[in-house]
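Annex B. Sample input.
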Amino acid sequence: MTATLTTDSPAQAAPTDRIPVAVLGATGSVGQRFVQLLEHHPWFRLHEVVASQRSAGKTYANAADWRLDTLLPETAAALNVKSLGDALESRLVFSGLDSSVAGEAEDDYANRGCAVLSNSKNHRMDADVPLLLAEINADHLAAIEKQRARRRGFIVTNSNCSTMGLALAIAPIEKRWGIEQLHVTTMQAVSGAGYNGVSSLAILDNVIPYIGGEEEKIESEPRKILGHWDGNRFIDAPLRISAQTNRVPTIDGHLMTISLRMRDRDFDLAAIREALESFEGEPQRLRLPSAPKKPIHYIDAPDRPQPRLDRDRERGMSVSVGRLRPCPLLDIRMVALVHNTIRGAAGAALLNAELLSAKNLL
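Annex B, continued. Sample output.
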């Protein structure tokens, strides 16, 4: 599938026709967010929805227990749900599948020639699969050529939702000064566990200091994102990360406290703040439709960022940072916030697809 691009300016570098796309796991929480974000997308149009066998054959309106705060799009509501494994007309596929089925299904569609943009964990650490955070490591897309040597299509993955916020918040610091070690504690919203993921009696008046597999992801994924592709394999960034994760009674928005030690000790807080506020990447230079104008918003207030007040900045696609100050154990500490189901999930995959389209990689 090749998107024909106009070339007048980066802002106009859009496909001349909206590209038809499919959503795998369309009835789940991430799948619903994909459907929501695609409703008015200028480059892509929702053409097919795919879910489990029990939903197959129903209209999407009857199969999806719609839980988002906007109305179910009429065009999506009328689509007939296909079963996972069915042939697709779309060559661009967004995957919101649960990890229990995502690995095999995404391989299957990539082998059939699809470009699979995945939110699942299964292929994130594969040797030739980009773990893409569009503002940071667009050059990692070079690995697609190697991946295509073993199958017709390819897979590009998002990071873990907390990793997304962490990696964006520290990328300007890693780029300019380098990071030697980092400790992060997350306070993660219940939406990250899916609609039925945490019972109300378990989370109300409570904090759960364990989320299965999350600490391992946060300790490994940023190293791949901030590393580099050497033409044959990914080389991890040489930072050490220690993570502790907690589930808290917030609906959306993962908050994290971060302390880190720099490699280059010649720094000051004003320069770090300036690096955060001025940071931009390929999505901003190309003016991609889902890209935030500013990937990082620094909030100069002693009690911010907060999930309820700051998670929806730039349609949920930016990361908010605040409370930058010295750390008595390491060098600096700060607080970061990411909207976990938009920037940390479906929105990030959509932005990744826009970057692929703008670079003629679809």
